[in-house]
Amino acid sequence: MLDTLVHRIGKDAQAARPHDWLAATILTVRNDIVERWMASTKAAHAAGAKRVYYLSLEFLIGRLLRDAVTNLQRGDEVARALAIHGQTLAELEEIEPDAALGNGGLGRLAACFMESLASLDLPAYGYGIRYVNGMFRQRIDDGWQVEMPENWLAHGNPWEFERRESAYFVGFGGEATVIDNRVHWSPSEAVEATAVDTPVVGWRGKRVNTLRLWTARAFDPIKLDKFNAGDFAGALGDQLRAETLTRVLYPNDSTPAGQELRLRQEYFFSSASIQDIVRRHIQYFGDIQTLPDKAAIQLNDTHPAVSVAELMRVLIDHHDFAFDAAWDITKRTFGYTNHTLLPEALESWPLPLFERLLPRHMQIVYQVNAKLLREARAAGADARIDDRAIAAISLIDESGERRVRMANLAFAGSHSINGVAALHTDLMKKTVFADLHRLYPTRINNKTNGITPRRWLQQCNPGLTALIREAIGDGFLDDAEKLIDLDGFADDPGFRDRFAAVKRSNKVMLANHIFESIGLRIDPDAMFDVQIKRIHEYKRQLLNIVETVALYDQVRSHPERDWVPRVKLFAGKAASSYQNAKLVIKLANDVARRINADPMTRDLLRVAFVPNYNVSLAEKIVPAADLSEQISTAGMEASGTGNMKFAMNGALTIGTLDGANIEIKDRVGDDNIFIFGMTADEVAAKRANGYDPRTVIEASPELRQAVSGIASGVFSPDDPARYAGLMGGLYDGDWFMVAADFDDYAVKQRDVDARWTDRDAWTASAIRNVARVGWFSSDRTIREYAREIWTVM
């Protein structure tokens, strides 16, 4: 390490600053990783192994140093080496930048899957975009979210390797013409996609796989004639347009320019990835017809769906395949994971935009659609395919402005379409893909999500990990399902005490972090009631906030009651164009300001919105949580993985029968979880039968008082009308059923209070949660993908 510091960083031990020691540590550890990486690659080549290619617009990998040294099992060795020079590994881990390559569960799932693929010794590449700024850094100014650039690459990234030999032409626009009976696409503009690789280390260093991210550059980065003529901006215009592709994750697509950039990004990384996969296959196996036998391409949600048309273009235009033969190869190669039932997240593009940017792909989409609709028409009455079903199956939505349906394209072009929880998969068959499912009844299957226990137990909660090892041995480190051996310890008073002590220690650390970040003191002996996730109306942070206001009113009105001290913790980012979600953040902060300043409730109720939620912050909050809020409107959360992380770290869940909550309930038992609210079927029935939220609100005194207080400006005296529209939305529509579920939610929260007052019972339930959720390891999920979709095990 000292040699690296001197010869790679150019500092000696006396002059080195913490960031120098961090770089030296990473580069030293990286040497070991690179050797394993090369050995893994050579072994896969020698075996002629089939590879998994995971295409995702997000990879929320977080910090990598602790992940690497833990999986290499060299943490103690690295810590000792640093200690010789007065440095601590934990402090250096804290200053490593958090890679801004994702936003929420979709990206974190992709990161967990990449780690599990390596841990299970399965050859794999992850493909995405090397965002320079990625998801924004969130600052809270006077309670409002302010989006700031996340400059995680400001000082470089010692984990990555540029691969200049892996560079590809990616075109846009122009036109497609026929030359010698072959279609030839002549783009009007193009960029060069260049690969940057990051090693992904599996458990015990068994395998090192590759996360390949794409950067963009202009083929002519500077036009000297324009520069010399004084047009400096024009001279750099092409390079600026290229760099825009990799600048920001999820650009605001509320404008035509934002929509175009989003489509350009999706095609850019999809095209580069498909070209790279095809090039590698030909290099090692020669015959492109064997692609499905040696490559499994998984689309992580709808963002990479244009890859289906891109592979068809490559096969037909560059390898002379007939359409039907190319379509057969494509379908056998692709799998598609759907992550949402929300229509806006299924992605469709205005047809003129799609055709202008990708004219050749538009031709292919029409050809695929013709084949699809002919198959549907031929199925006819046997599959209940009528004109309405034909319209729903079509890749072109003609219900208003004509749009290209990317989810339908992904479905049509894949041999497997999977949901990510049992309920979600069932709803896919009944709702968004009902007609496609009737046409292709064997394609949809379920693969319930999972989390890597290395990151979300061993690394983020070392105290609990050590306690579990002492109790049941090390078997769970290699197989998370062996956590079940902990179940019997829930009835052991001595173990319960030690378990509770670990939890309190984690809460003290989080309390210190919150005081340092926002200046709020919280009591580690209070219940930490946590909702951390992307801010979205269907996730119902609003339900939590309204119930918090109702609780505040009750505590003030009935000081004689034995109230359980609570700390309500919120964190999450709202999309920059999502005004209602940003208003919810402001409301959370306004409510926090009022409640935290009230001497009547100061010792019983605290509220905090912790800014800039990311992986590193989650790693602090999850081990400290007592209660996990998983309260989405039933039928709208595909799975959730935060629910799994909290349960694995000994938090009890309060939640609806939505997503993976259902399967968590089945695993941990009804006595160790708090379930409330309507089921997905009941939500659908209430909407269909004419839901009147005004009547519901007026019939609930606590809800009415809380909504009235918020709407009238009690929590926003500087702008009394600030929340009138937000609360008016509950009265006038309440699509997300906040009012409908409120009373049941409030009752269940008092059940939570009752359980908390019996601390032995609470701790026993927490231990049983840890013991019984090992099944939700991403290793189990990946084994299911590997055996049933990718056929690589």
Q: Indicate the overall shape.
A: globular
What is the alpha-carbon Rg in Å?
Answer: 27 Å
**Percentage of residues in helical conformation:** 40-55%
Global mean pLDDT = 96
Spans where pLDDT lies below 50 across 5 or more residues: none
Distance between the termini: 39 Å
**What is the count of β-strands?**
22
Strand arrangement within the widest β-sheet reads 5-8-9-2-1-10-11-15-16
Question: Structural class from helices and strands?
Answer: alpha/beta
Oligomer: single chain
Number of helices, counting only DSSP H or I runs of 4 residues or more = 35
Describe the biggest sheet? Answer: 9 strands, mixed
Q: Provide the β-strand percentage band.
A: 5-15%
Short descriptors:
globular, 15% strand, 50% helix, 793 residues, 35 helices
Structure description:
With 793 residues, this protein is α/β, with parallel strands linked by helices. The protein has a 9-stranded mixed β-sheet with strand order 5-8-9-2-1-10-11-15-16. Strands 19-18-17-20-21-22 form a 6-stranded parallel β-sheet, sandwiched between helices. A hairpin with a 6-residue loop joins strand 8 and strand 9. Helix 1 crosses helix 2 (18-47).
